[in-house]
Amino acid sequence: MGEVLKVSVDRSGRTVLPAKVREALGVTIGDEVAFVLEGRQVTLVKAGCPTENPFAAFLEWASPDDDEAYGSL
């Protein structure tokens, strides 16, 4: 198990992501995160990252320039 970081939950169920977590995920202001539930374990991931969508890497070839260059193949 890695480093354990404890935080408090307020009355509204809110908490703050520790700086080490934000840095590890590359999360900045306005980014979204996702909670992946697996039984009684929760994994926090940056929303839209490749682990959330295994086909996200293919989006790099979805530009109008690529359509023009390779559309007739």
In short:
The mean pLDDT is 84. Helix content is 19%, strand content 16%. The chain has helices spanning 19-25, 64-70; strands at 33-38, 41-46.
Keywords:
19% helix, two-stranded antiparallel sheet, alpha+beta, 73 residues
- Our count of helices gives 2
| Quantity of strands, as a count | 2
How far do the termini sit from each other?
49 Å
> How much is the average pLDDT?
84
- What spatial order of strands do you see in the largest sheet? 1-2
The ordered string of helix (H) and strand (E) elements is HEEH
Number of domains as seen in the coordinates: 1
**Rg of Cα set:** 18 Å
Helix content: 10-25%
Assess the beta-strand content as a share of residues. 15-25%
Q: What spatial form do the alpha-carbon principal axes imply?
A: elongated
Low-confidence runs (pLDDT<50, min 5 residues)?
none
Return the structural class: alpha+beta
Largest sheet: 2 strands, antiparallel
What topology emerges from the helices and strands here?
Blueprint lengths: L18 H7 L7 E6 L2 E6 L17 H7 L3
Antiparallel strand pairs: 1-2
Structure description:
19% of the residues lie in helices and 16% in strands. The chain is α+β, with helices and mostly antiparallel strands. The protein has one domain (19-70). It has a two-stranded antiparallel ribbon. The model has no long low-confidence stretch (mean pLDDT 84).
